[in-house]
Amino acid sequence: MNGDSVVTPVQTSNPLPWHLLPDTSSAGPDGRLSIGGCDALDLVAEFGTPLFVYDEEHLRARCREAVAAFGSHATYASKAFLCKAMARIAFEEGMGIDVASGGEMHVCLAAGVPADRLVFHGNNKSVAELALARQERVGRIVVDSDDELGRLESLYRSDGIVPDILLRITPGIKAETHEYVATGQDDSKFGFTVSTGAAKAAVDRAQESPAVNLVGIHAHIGSQVFRVDSFAAAVGVLADFANPLGLPELVVGGGLGVPYVEGEEAPSITQWSAIIKKAAVDAGIKATIGIEPGRSVAAAAAVTLYTVGTVKNLPGIRSYVAVDGGMSDNPRPVLYGSGYEAFLPRAVTAERADRVRIVGKHCESGDLLIRQASVPADLVVGDVLATPVTGAYGHSMGSNYNKILRPPVVFCRDGDARLVVRRETYDDLLSTDLG
Ligand code: LLP
């Protein structure tokens, strides 16, 4: 039901379910995987491992799906995956971009995305971040707290800039997902709570304040949510709060889940959008609706390629297959118990008869990528091993733990492989170290 639950995926010897791969994936007559017309093993020969390989057409298609449903009010949540090339793709395809820090804002501006297409989020924006957002004239600031309203008022007193804002509210919906990514329930650090009256008080304050122009309400109930009825319920609760206010905009956040492992299925962005639109009509919402998908745009667009470095067989216990990355390029299994699949790009349609634990190269036992993976029985040291659906919250949540170098990112399209983020170097590790 949920890719972030701690359940072990259904264990079969089946080949990798094809729908977990990026849209333009294909298998050659020799069984080798290509993405965007680029052979995965050729990419490894050129760029090394670990390597994030994105299907550019897949990213663009998901952006177009969101824009087809919600026009310019479809906003890409860049926390899922961001680099300049990604920001440009989302913008070129017509999406706005949700930035949740000064850093994300900086990357989007550096990519040439006009500031008015940015939506600035965060539960604890600093004065410096708010000042930057206002001076750059970002499209919307999503105000999360009374303290933030106070900061905007004092900035206004010094420069007179009046940003358009949304107020983020917590509608009191408990989405069925991992507790770390559930955000709609009352007990949350985010937003103004509806049930306590804080949300209504914030609306009154914002409407009376000369420092902000309140244009709408925002809510985000959580991430990796598969149950569309959670979204429909959220829209209903939001309507009860927002309809009487008569504001022009209502943003219902992101959160659409994606399948990570065999047996999982999720609605498409188009299906999700249709459910939100129907719920909005049923609830009598007149405001323009906006969405903010992140994961559903980027997750399935990428695979991570690793090289198998060691295999340790413990008879009667298990086999450990160690790759040249780990929790520094994908912390999700360790953080949330998230499940992934594995396969060999040299034989993408092969049966996967062996059960192994796939681990990284970090100095701790918790560093696992797949607790119980199905892999082809002929896997050997030196093989390139891939994990699909790593395009969201992988590269973006990566770290330099153990001073491991962050992997490069390649965008593939029509047979061209474009290096959009290069591999870090040892000197990069020292670039902020003043000795
Ligand atoms: N809008 C807001 C205000 C958000 O906080 C988020 C995600 C999104 C949109 C996008 O949600 P998506 O469509 O990607 O579900 N690191 C976690 C996910 C954290 C999500 C945080 N907020 C993970 O790896 O599962």
Question: Would you write up a description of this structure?
Answer:
This protein is of the alpha/beta class. It folds into two domains: 18-54 and 299-427, Lyase, Ornithine Decarboxylase, Chain A, domain 1 (Beta Barrel), CATH 2.40.37.10; 55-298, Alanine racemase (TIM Barrel, Alpha-Beta Barrel). The chain is 27% helix and 22% strand. The chain contains twelve helices and 20 strands. The protein has helices at residues 40-47, 56-70, 84-92, 102-110, 127-136, 146-159, 198-208, 228-242, 269-282, 295-298, 332-336, 426-429, and strands at residues 26-27, 33-35, 38-39, 51-55, 75-77, 96-99, 118-120, 140-143, 164-170, 192-193, 213-218, 249-251, 288-290, 302-314, 318-323, 354-359, 368-375, 384-388, 409-413, 416-421. Strands 5, 6, 7, 8, 9, 10, 11, 12 and 13 form a nine-stranded parallel sheet that branches. 50% of the residues are buried. The model is unreliable at 1-7 (pLDDT under 50). Bound molecules: ligand LLP.
